[in-house]
Specification:
Length: 140
């Protein structure tokens, strides 16, 4: 989505083909997609969740995920991310989930981790990812 660049290390724009594929998978739940639209029709924020019923059954769990959450520049620091996240959590709860999970880049410049902690998320585990540009370099 144009203007929704999330400012973090692992951002990859999704193509129409990739998004269409996701919409066709059995775990896609359209009722877990939320979009906030400004009065002028501009997409301002979004929250996308999912529930993997098969995995929940195998592990005897009732877990849902907040896969992605974003607020467009110009609409940040207005409480939209909090509001749409809380709405997403309500949707997971209404679907029978008792736990919500998400992943976050702890270096996110938009204080995403602070938002998640402020609504009750707790760190379950942390991991590090490394990358190195190798094109145009001599490897030694």
């Amino acid at each position: 989505m144009q203007g929704f660049h999330p400012n973090h290390w692992n951002f990859h724009p999704q193509t129409v083909v990739e998004h269409s594929y996701w919409l066709s998978t059995p775990v896609y739940c359209p009722e877990l997609d939320l979009i906030a639209v400004a009065p002028d029709g501009t997409f301002a924020a979004f929250c996308h969740g999912h529930i993997d019923a098969e995995e929940n059954q195998q592990k005897d769990r009732r877990e849902g995920w907040i896969n992605s959450l974003g607020t467009r520049r110009g609409f940040r620091r207005m409480g939209l991310a909090r509001a749409i996240l809380l709405a997403g959590l309500q949707r997971l709860k209404a679907a029978g989930m008792d736990t919500a999970k998400l992943g976050v880049d702890t270096q996110n410049p938009n204080s995403a981790q602070t938002l998640y902690e402020s609504v009750g998320f707790q760190t379950r585990y942390a991991s590090l990812s490394y990358s190195k540009t190798i094109s145009g370099q001599t490897i030694s």
